[in-house]
Design goal:
Layout (H helix, E strand, L loop, with lengths): L8 H56 L4 H12 L7 E7 L4 E3 L16 E3 L6 E3 H7 L3 E6 L9 E7 L5 E8 H71 L2 H9 L6 E5 L4 E5 L3 E7 L2 E6 L4 E4 L3 H7 L5 E5 L2 E4 L3 E7 L3 E6 L7 E3 L4 H8 L2
Length: about 375
């Protein structure tokens, strides 16, 4: 009996697929996160530049309308007073580094020093003192680091010079606060990623299990077919062994059919020889002539066709395999399944060609064995 004793491959496939999905998803997830991080930073720089431009032009219009510098500064201070400095805010300096406007009034008049902070462009390491940047009085943007104040985080800063003055409108974005936003974004993306991975793995398990069930059914049918062939083969060989070991078959054959020959007369080197049918392994055709081969592996030419010879032999001991061969049951050593519906006989002495029982004669051959 053949049993399916192999390991289920769908579990291995699922494990490999799950690992692949996790790895690919992690790579994509990090790529999306990094892209979102750079996109957010770029958007902050652009929005900061756009905001200081608008505020700077508004201040320029106020000055052009005849308002004094003090009034314009006062108006800006009132508009930004007490705005949240935790995330982003607007302030204004002059080119000497003095703060003219700030959401926290206590910082108005604060003097920026050379070692106060440094500004460097995004993605570059070289930096310049923030005071020097203010003194240049041009449009600038970058990352402001407070090297001497560990309690203050870096900021994204964009400064815009107001025409006709030494004023510099500046937007500030706290990077730590922005990182908190990124962390929130990261956590949300991570949740979506984990849910997506679980959904993909669940769907993969379902699909693989469905496919594997069909595979199991197919293998089961093949195993059942093999078991049937093995049982058939065992039955045939048992029948062969039982028939060969039954010594009474000769007596029974003699009683049943007294007309069957016990000897066949032939000639060998001008000598007449009578060969006992019990010593004949098989009779075969070769180039249109009939020959018999004995169990001692000797060949003799005989007269008559295979049809005529077969009629003279004991039908219980001899079987007409095909048009070219009549075989003695004692010459059959083993029976094999051949192809889907045929049998192959292993004979001794060995015949020059394969001895096959066609599918049309398998039933008759089994019946002959089971006599």
């Amino acid at each position: 009996m053949i049993k399916m004793c192999y390991k289920s491959p769908h579990k291995i496939i699922l494990g490999c697929l799950s690992a692949m999905v996790v790895i690919v998803s992690m790579v994509l997830f990090n790529a999306v996160y990094q892209s979102a991080k750079h996109q957010l930073l770029d958007n902050r720089l652009k929005s900061g530049e756009r905001e200081v431009r608008e505020i700077g032009r508004l201040l320029e219009l106020q000055l052009q309308s005849g308002l004094s510098n003090e009034v314009v500064i006062k108006n800006l201070q009132q508009s930004i007073l007490n705005t949240d400095v935790g995330m982003e805010f607007i302030c204004m300096y002059n080119t000497n580094g003095v703060e003219l406007c700030h959401p926290n009034p206590a910082l108005i008049g604060h003097q920026i020093t050379t070692n106060d902070s440094y500004l460097h462009k995004v993605g570059k390491q070289d930096s310049k003192a923030f005071l020097e940047v203010l003194q240049e009085g041009t449009l600038k943007s970058g990352i402001r680091d407070f090297t001497n104040d560990p309690n203050r985080g870096s900021e994204i800063v964009t400064i815009y010079p107001v025409k006709g003055t030494d004023w510099l409108v500046a937007s500030h974005v706290n990077i730590d606060a922005m990182q908190a936003q990124l962390s929130t974004l990261y956590n949300n993306l991570l949740i979506v990623f984990l849910i997506g991975v679980l959904v993909i793995i669940a769907l993969s398990y379902f699909l693989i299990r469905l496919i594997y069930r069909r595979y199991e059914q197919l293998i089961s049918k093949q195993v059942d077919g093999l078991n049937e062939e093995v049982e058939l083969l065992n039955t045939l060989n048992q029948q062969l062994l039982s028939t060969k070991q039954n010594e009474q078959i000769k007596i029974t054959n003699a009683e049943k059919d007294s007309s069957s020959k016990k000897r066949i007369v032939t000639y060998h080197k001008d000598e007449m020889i009578a060969i006992s049918t019990d010593s004949i392994a098989y009779v075969f055709l070769n180039n249109g002539l009939s020959f018999l081969r004995t169990f001692s592996n000797e060949n003799y030419a005989v007269t008559g066709s295979l049809d005529d010879i077969y009629k003279q032999l004991n039908a219980d001991c001899f079987y007409r395999v095909n048009r070219q061969l009549i075989i003695n049951i004692s010459a059959i050593k083993t029976i094999y399944i051949y192809g889907k519906n045929q049998l192959k006989l292993l004979v001794e002495p060995v015949f020059d060609k394969d001895v096959l029982i066609s599918k049309n004669k398998v039933a008759a051959f089994k019946k002959w064995l089971d006599r």
